[in-house]
Amino acid sequence: MTATDALRIVLLAGGVGGSTFATGLRDEIAGRGGSLTVVCNTGDDLWLSGLRLQPDVDSMLYALAGVKDLAQGWGRAGDSRRVADELAAWNVGWEWFLLGDLDLGAHIARTSWLREGLSPTDAIARLQARWDLGATLLPMTDTEVDTHVVLDAAGTRMHFQEWWTRHRARLEPVRFENPGIAVSVPAPGVLEAIAAADVILVAPSNPIVSIGPILAVPGLADAIRAASAPVVGVSPIIGDAPVRGMADVCLRVAGVPCTAAGVAGHYGARGADGVLDAWLIAAEDAEAAASVDDLGITAHVEPLWMSDAARTRALAVAALRAAGI
Ligand code: FO1
């Protein structure tokens, strides 16, 4: 690309960590006149209290709009729970899964548009039109592929959100399943964005239940492998522990070591049927650089903690630098 071309970035991301990284990226490329398309995980979506919830999409939406509850990592800042308390009194929904009043507005809007016949992509387009996000938000697929956590050989299962929020990932799973993912198709615009990208980034999101479902949508990983853009990932593991959340349990279930190199190996090198060209790891994991390089993935040691807006933006700069931009 030349200096006059607008930089086109595609980010694959989950909700909590992914949306933080996306804000830094958006802030950085705004000054460079670039465009950002976020392909968001919809594997943790669910129907609850008659409403369609898209937790990762909404975390991304709220973060980019500047209305996310940053301390909590999800939901709207300054939200209240008047409706949630009423629903609990009627024993509707899950008492352990809080739907704030402002958040409920998004769920009701989405569900009413879906009932009118809009696709999830179109509903998300309407939701994001409310704010100037500085990015385009796409779901990975319009097909419902909610994640199930299978708990035993007999196939006993629960929805991922129940396992994650009610049981705090303490029940040992046998595996995760996304029913229907084998026949899902990438949402409109996803393959086109990947093909046209100048750089493809993989956010520091949960590799198994956030990035995993995105890459499992048929055709999506192949499109990344076929893309002309470099693919750079950011490790969600620092010092052998997840930056946030309970990704260590998910990695163990999938048989992936909870290390920066382990996750790089899980994603694999593009040259070896994987998706990565480069992988950002923290200084705490610098000794893993050689084994990442041995996978055919170029390791870059960078500060990965997104502890404030400046550090988050610096991480976005580092990811673009690793892509040669
Ligand atoms: N996470 C929680 O730990 N407790 C909750 O009560 C909760 C409610 C909730 C409601 C809407 C929403 O979009 C997300 C919500 N989350 C909640 C976050 C969510 O369960 C997970 O952190 C993500 O799905 C994991 O990616």
Shape: globular
At the fourth level of CATH, the homologous superfamily is CofD-like domains
Integer tally of domains: 1
**Portion in helices:** 25-40%
Based on CA atoms alone, the radius of gyration comes out at 19 Å
CATH topology grouping: Rossmann fold
Q: Number of helical runs?
A: 13
Major beta-sheet overview: 7 strands, parallel
In CATH terms, what is the architecture?
3-Layer(aba) Sandwich
Ligands (ions, cofactors included):
ligand FO1
SSE pattern: EHEEEHHHHEEEHEHEHHEEEHHEHEH
Spatial sequence of strands, sheet with the most strands: 5-2-1-9-10-13-14
* DSSP strand tally: 14
Question: Can you offer a commentary on this structure?
Answer:
This protein has 325 residues and is α/β, with parallel strands linked by helices. The protein has a single domain (8-68, 120-146, 178-322), classed as CofD-like domains (Rossmann fold, 3-Layer(aba) Sandwich). The chain has 13 helices and 14 strands. The N and C termini lie close together (10 Å). The mean pLDDT is 96. It binds ligand FO1. The site of ligand FO1 has 17 residues, from helix 2 and helix 6.
Quick overview:
The chain is an alpha/beta fold and 325 residues long.
How would you summarize the topology of this molecule?
Elements: E1 8-13, H1 16-30, E2 35-40, E3 46-48, E4 51-53, H2 55-65, H3 82-89, H4 101-116, H5 120-128, E5 136-139, E6 148-150, E7 157-159, H6 160-166, E8 175-177, H7 190-196, E9 199-202, H8 211-216, H9 220-226, E10 231-234, E11 237-238, E12 241-242, H10 247-254, H11 260-267, E13 278-281, H12 289-294, E14 298-301, H13 309-322
Parallel strand pairs: 1-2, 1-9, 2-5, 9-10, 10-13, 13-14
Antiparallel strand pairs: 3-4, 6-7, 6-8, 11-12
Helix pairs in contact: 1-2, 1-13, 4-5, 7-9
The structure holds ligand FO1.
